[in-house]
Amino acid sequence: MSLSVADMAAMRETLVESLPDPCAVIVDTLVDDDAGGHRIGSTTTTYVPCRISPRLATGTGQLKDAETEQAGRIITQAPWLVTLPANIEVSAKDQIGAWDGRVFEVFAVLGRRSNELATLVTCRLINEGVG
Fold first, then answer.
1. What b/e sequence results for 27-60 when a residue is b if at least 16 CB atoms lie within 10 Å of its CB, and e otherwise?
2. Domain range for residue 111?
3. pTM of the full predicted structure?
4. What CATH number did the domain enclosing 23 receive?
5. Most buried of the four, 42, 53, 64, 103, by CB within 10 Å?
6. How many angstroms from the chain centroid is the CA of residue 60?
7. How many domains does the chain contain in total?
């Protein structure tokens, strides 16, 4: 049995109403700098409701660490899971600005599907914001 367009819209609306915080999806657009490189040409910011939470290892209640490479070194950091409304344009290296000043860098968009109710992204904290 497939869901109707109206059913999907109602489910997405319910999910959006449950997202407690505002955030900004920040996308930098690169343009040629006429010297063989690139520079940030413009920044697009989309304001949406969200939920930001630490990502826990399945069934343990403990934070799940993620390893990333920075400057040739492996860095271990607890990732964050950000829930956004369905079909939000977001990709790796975009940033998410939280209402409290924290800034997160997206490193994965999880399982895009045609009938998604929410967009889930895994991020790392890059700015603590205002304490």
1. beeeeeeeeeeeeeeeeeeeebbbbbeebeeeee
2. 5-127
3. 0.76
4. 2.40.10.270
5. 103
6. 23
7. 1
